[in-house]
Structure formats: structure tokens, C-alpha cells
Amino acid sequence: MLLLDHLRAEHExxxxxxxxxxxxxxxxxxxxxxxxxxxxxxxxxxxxxHHAREEDSLFPALVRDxxxxxxxxxxxxxxxxxxxxxxxxxxxxxxxxxxxxxxAARYGSALLHHIDAENSVLFxxxxxxxxxxxxxxxxxxxxxxxxxxxxxxxxxxxxxYPPREIPDLIRGDGCVSCEAYGEGCDGVEREWWTELExxxxxxxxx
Length: 206
Hints:
The chain is mainly α and 206 residues long. It has helices at residues 2-26, 32-66, 73-93, 97-132, 145-160, 188-192, 195-199, 201-204.
């Protein structure tokens, strides 16, 4: 499914951007123009392009074609995470010094956990459920001029500020590694699975 392939590939650049942001936030004498470049990337490419296509294409298809609930479970938590990260990003736009580094780490940690949840749970689950429903492809679009420019500028920033790890960040796959697990979401199996999924469980887990 091309949309899911595109979203996975975009995660790779977004991860590099998160690491580069950490280097930038810790650098002395930070360039205001470079700071704007990070904000444009996360607002336009990660937000208006990447997250919007999840919200406008993938999430509705799961609700419409597979009866995945929108008012609880993974979709609700992932959508809330989009909004929460956007709020942190707006705070980061006004931050300086140590506060910028703190917010950059907070934003980056949230975004990387979000990527892990999508890569290891949402996307594989979506492929299985949509395939069973006979949905082989979802609407997609190319980035517009502003989004593409923000992406290209980020490639230059990643080269200028090589990515670094976020200290003490522990990442992992599966629902149990998700920060929302047990705090608003009981995991995809309890929230989504029907008798069909449980009957097919050994095939699904290999």
C-alpha cells in the first residue's frame, strides 16, 4: 500500500530531523534562520503534510472500512498526540536557551515514541485490516511547494547539525512501549480485535 510505504519513508527523515534539532538546540550562538527552518519543517512537512495525510486518508479509511473506533483506542490516542506535539512545537517557537533544549527533547521524545507506535502497531495493523476489507490503496498526494521546500531545507540542516540521541530516551515496539498504553488505550488487541483477528493470531505474529 503506497501511502503506508510513503509514511514509513517520511518517518526516516523526521527521525533525522528530531536528532538534528537536539544538536541545534544545544549549540552556542544558534542561528535564528536555522531555528525557523526547523519550525517550518515540523509545522509544514511533519504536520501539514505527513500528519494531515494520516488524519485525512488513513484514519478515516480504518474507521469507514474496518470499523476501527475513532472515539477510543489507538486512533484517538494518535490524533491527540498530533495535537499535543503541535502545542509543544508552538511553545518551542518562543523558547530560548535551556528552555529550548528542554522543549526540543520533550518534543523529540514524543515524536519518536509516536513514530514507534505507528511503525510497529498502526501501519502493520492497517495493512492487515484494510487488506481484509479489500482496500488495496488509499488517497495520497505529493508535497506542495512549501512542504517540499521545508523538506529540502531540513536535509541541509541535518548535514549542518548532525543528529544526536536524546538522553535517557527508551524506545520500543508494540503497544506495551506506547506511552498511552493503559492510560487511555488498552492496546490494539483489546480495542480493535474481533473474533477474526483472534482466530488468526498465530498467523499474524508469525
